[in-house]
Automatic annotation (TrEMBL):
<protein>
    <submittedName>
        <fullName>NADP-dependent oxidoreductase</fullName>
    </submittedName>
</protein>
<dbReference type="InterPro" id="IPR036291">
    <property type="entry name" value="NAD(P)-bd_dom_sf"/>
</dbReference>
<dbReference type="InterPro" id="IPR045010">
    <property type="entry name" value="MDR_fam"/>
</dbReference>
<dbReference type="InterPro" id="IPR013149">
    <property type="entry name" value="ADH-like_C"/>
</dbReference>
<keyword id="KW-0560">Oxidoreductase</keyword>
<dbReference type="Pfam" id="PF00107">
    <property type="entry name" value="ADH_zinc_N"/>
</dbReference>
<feature type="domain" description="Enoyl reductase (ER)">
    <location>
        <begin position="15"/>
        <end position="332"/>
    </location>
</feature>
<dbReference type="Pfam" id="PF16884">
    <property type="entry name" value="ADH_N_2"/>
</dbReference>
<dbReference type="InterPro" id="IPR020843">
    <property type="entry name" value="ER"/>
</dbReference>
<feature type="region of interest" description="Disordered">
    <location>
        <begin position="1"/>
        <end position="14"/>
    </location>
</feature>
<dbReference type="InterPro" id="IPR011032">
    <property type="entry name" value="GroES-like_sf"/>
</dbReference>
<dbReference type="InterPro" id="IPR041694">
    <property type="entry name" value="ADH_N_2"/>
</dbReference>
<feature type="compositionally biased region" description="Basic and acidic residues">
    <location>
        <begin position="5"/>
        <end position="14"/>
    </location>
</feature>
Length: 337
């Protein structure tokens, strides 16, 4: 059983020394347990937070412990009712080949799911995050303008496409012309602005001449700065993530703008609400699964994945994810290396 354990807590960007690959015997299931073999491992920005022992909504991974992560696995052997060998399951087994489970919190995807790995993306946690954050906090109304960063990632791409289905004007923010082209041509966004362009703030202003009613915050930093310049009265900002800051080691230099921001919130009567998807909206998961399942079946939501073969590729692929290297949802496929 190959597994990545946390070797040291990163300062700034994770490095080759952050995680260590080790090999232990494949665990033996006892009564009431099943043995799961990982087929796909999800890579997600929140994993950076789990590497750190700074205060957070979830406890950090301990030094020497297996790195956490969502997985799509197959049942090898099982003594649990409802789980039989060869079933595909959605579980949380972390960065390793095999894991034992008592079945709690594990969803059975059946023998023949059409796209098993999609349960780690549009049909799972990131898709649910987009759906719930936009609908519950964003409260979109037809004709309003939504802006979302990470526009080709699993959360951003889903936010934008749901926004279009609800009749909104959707402007994405992504790194580079290829990703922006994908957002407009494949995902159906009305426009997409490249945050790496020197005149990014001007381009965003030109793309949002009616202002911004909903900013779905995935990014923070200079993207947030540019958005605030265009924000409308009564705007809603679901605060989902701040990925541009996850490797930061301190606050940026410059004047303290906290009171300026509070003044803007007051004048614009903005609603800014953070959320942690399952803590805040877990009860809505069945509703999400039904609605998203129907949209996918009807071909109304597009989904792009970037599959990388080999568990040993996971650390490098994760570092790249935080730097905007992924184009679509990044997933590690095990067993093919
Ligand atoms: P993505 O696959 O979209 O990956 C992150 C993307 O962020 C990169 O691809 C990159 O976009 C962009 N990015 C990184 N650094 C910068 C930067 N300095 N400036 C602008 N863009 C940058 O991630 P997900 O779709 O999985 O997640 C999106 C957000 O949602 C994250 O912030 C994540 O933490 C958050 N999240 C929050 C949850 C919650 O419960 N609150 C649950 C799930 C996710 P590009 O490729 O265009 O360069």
């Amino acid at each position: 059983n190959r597994r990545f354990v946390l070797a040291e807590r990163p300062k700034g960007e994770p490095t080759d020394a952050t995680l260590r690959l080790d090999t232990v015997p494949v665990p033996e299931p006892k009564a009431g347990q099943m043995l799961l073999r990982t087929e796909y491992l999800s890579l997600d920005p929140y994993m950076r937070g789990r590497m750190s022992d700074a205060p957070s909504y979830a406890p950090p991974v301990g030094i020497g412990e297996v790195m956490v992560g969502g997985t799509v696995s197959r049942v090898v052997s099982s003594s649990i009712e409802g789980f039989a060998p060869d079933d595909w399951v959605l579980s949380f087994n972390g960065w390793q080949d095999y894991a034992l489970s008592d079945g709690k919190g594990v969803a059975n995807l059946g023998r023949n799911p059409l796209h098993p790995s999609w349960a780690l993306g549009v049909l799972g946690m990131p898709g649910f995050t987009a759906w719930a954050g936009l609908k519950q906090i964003g409260q979109p109304k037809a004709g309003e303008t939504i802006v979302v960063g990470g526009a080709t990632g699993p959360v951003g791409a889903t936010v934008g496409q749901i926004g279009k289905l609800l009749g909104c004007n959707v402007v994405g923010i992504a790194g580079g012309t290829e990703k922006c082209g994908h957002a407009v041509n494949t995902l159906g966004f009305d426009a997409c602005v490249d945050y790496k362009a020197a005149d990014f703030a001007d381009q965003l202003a030109a793309a949002t001449t009616d202002g911004i009613d909903i900013y779905f915050e995935n990014i923070g930093g200079k993207v947030l700065d540019a958005v605030l310049g265009q924000i409308n009265t009564n705007a809603r900002i679901p605060v989902c993530g701040l990925v541009s800051q996850y490797n930061a080691t301190g606050l940026p230099d410059g004047p303290d703008r906290l009171n300026w921001l509070m003044g803007l919130i007051l004048r614009k009567r903005m609603t800014i609400r953070g959320f942690i998807i399952f803590e805040d909206f877990g009860h809505l998961y069945p509703e999400f699964a039904k609605e998203m399942g129907a949209w996918i079946e009807a071909g109304q939501i597009q989904y792009r994945e970037e599959i990388i073969d080999g568990l040993e590729q996971a650390p490098g692929a994760f570092i790249g994810l935080l730097n905007g290297e992924a184009f679509g949802k990044r997933v590690i496929r095990l067993g093919k290396s």
